Amino acid sequence: MPKKIISCILICILLFAFASCGKKEKEEKHSTELKLPDKKVAVLVAPESQYPEDYRAAKALEAKYPDNVIVKEYADSRVLVAGDAEIITLSKELAADETVGAVVYARATQFAYTAIQRAKEINPSLVTVAVEPEQSLDYIYSISDLVIMADWMKYSRRIVDTAKDMGAEKFVLFSYDRHVSSNPLYSQLKKSIADECYNKRVEFIFENFKDPNYSGGADAAKYDIRQRIVNLFDTKQIEAGKTAVFSTDSIVQSVLVEQAAKRSLIYVSPSFPTAYNGICEYYEAALPEDIKDTASFISSLGSAISADTDGKGKFAIYNFALADTLVRGAVYSAFDLLTGEADTENIFEKASVRLKDASDNKKFNVDKYGPAPDGNVLMCYAPDYEIIKIEKMTEKSK
Fold first, then answer.
1. Alpha-carbon distance 301 to 291, whole Å?
2. Does the residue 27 lie in any domain?
3. pLDDT in tens, 153-176
4. How far apart are the C-alpha atoms of 149 and 313, rounded to whole Å?
5. Which CATH number covers residue 56?
6. Distance between CA atoms of residues 350 and 339, nearest Å
7. SS3 87
8. Domain of 302?
9. Gyration radius of the chain over CA positions
């Protein structure tokens, strides 16, 4: 009799456990359902010519949710203008619009902090989501409801690993004081790259080039990098076929690709992990109909590189649409914040689900940024690099 009682109890426990699992599974499935807010989410985005992946992602969301998402395009953030930058002007206009409940900064450029600050002065209840901030992260997360960005530490280690796989014995990082001294994130990136170079026995070289925000602008910065590369060769600090080049600034990527092609250097990645900046600013390839289709774009880009019979560069490319994932996750998270599905207590968990749903990549990972006390900074990455072409050095390039 006692054995029968014990058996019955065990059966009941198992049935209860199965029922609980089913209920939990149902609840988890329900938690991913998207509720649409009464107010609109505005996405502020740079022109397609500057950030194609971000722009296409924003426009796709606007087409999918015409009553809930609007896209506002600001001028190229790399071009300095007198007075307020357009991202600031548009932020103030949107904050004053009673139909808008949230603003997503598809790239939180150098003017994003001021833009958010001015907007919240007009509408304190405005929800803001900053994607991939360029300014000091500590400033941005203190004023924005949510920050979503690439995991730069994982990214930097992967860059060095890929460069090493491509034959790099030296790694040159081009940056300047506004990035590596004034911004803790870029400072950590520099240290992480240097540390990984040390671990991989790759010589690390730092070149402090001219800040494109100062006198001479972008043209002066590009000229300065060309001259520095010439000097590095002349002084025998670097050599063809065995040197990787990288910069924290997006505006000089075309120069690095150009120099890689002409001088047999290794180009691993643009300043942000994407297939749609960097190499394609020098070698032309048509954007795919679906911006997430990086495979077809990389194939077209590879054909363009192979067609350059004089090219001597070594190229790798990031083959996952990370910017698209971040923008989509940001908009879905803004929906959650407006509908009350997410708040300061659960924002990390809710936003993580949205990002993972948007990614469709099993290797995609989301982590917290430790210094942010509210867990409102999410660091995302998927380690997907692909080597397009390794050109053997010709006698001339040697």
1. 14
2. no
3. 888 899 999 999 999 999 999 999
4. 30
5. 3.40.50.11400
6. 12
7. helix
8. 152-320+384-390
9. 24
Query: Is residue 218 a contact partner of residue 78, using CB atoms and an 8 Å limit?
Result: yes
Structure tokens at 4: 């029968």
Instruction: Give the H or E element holding residue 174.
Output: strand 170-175
- In sequence order, what are the beta bridge partners of 157? none
With H, G, I as helix, E, B as strand and everything else as coil, classify residue 216. Answer: coil
Q: Would residue 340 be called left, alpha or beta, if left means φ above 0 and alpha means ψ between -120 and 50 degrees?
A: left
Question: In the chain, what's the furthest Cα-to-Cα distance?
Answer: 92
Please answer whether residues 220 and 204 qualify as being in contact, where contact means their C-beta atoms are separated by less than 8 angstroms. Answer: no
**DSSP secondary structure letter of residue 135:** S
Query: Are 145 and 202 in a shared domain?
Result: no
In this structure, is the dihedral angle defined by the CA atoms of residues 29, 31, 36 and 41, taken in order, positive or negative? negative
Are residues 242 and 170 in contact, defined by beta-carbon separation less than 8 angstroms? yes
Residues 174 and 298 in one domain: yes
What string of DSSP letters covers 226-266? HHHHHHHHHTTSS-TTSEEEEES-GGGHHHHHHHHHHHT-E
Return the CATH number at 299: 3.40.50.11390
pTM: 0.86
CA dist 14 and 20 (Å) reads 10
Note the pLDDT tens digit of each residue in 35-73. Answer: 999 999 999 999 998 899 999 999 999 999 999 999 999
Rounded to an integer, what distance in angstroms lies between the CA atom of residue 165 and that of residue 74?
39
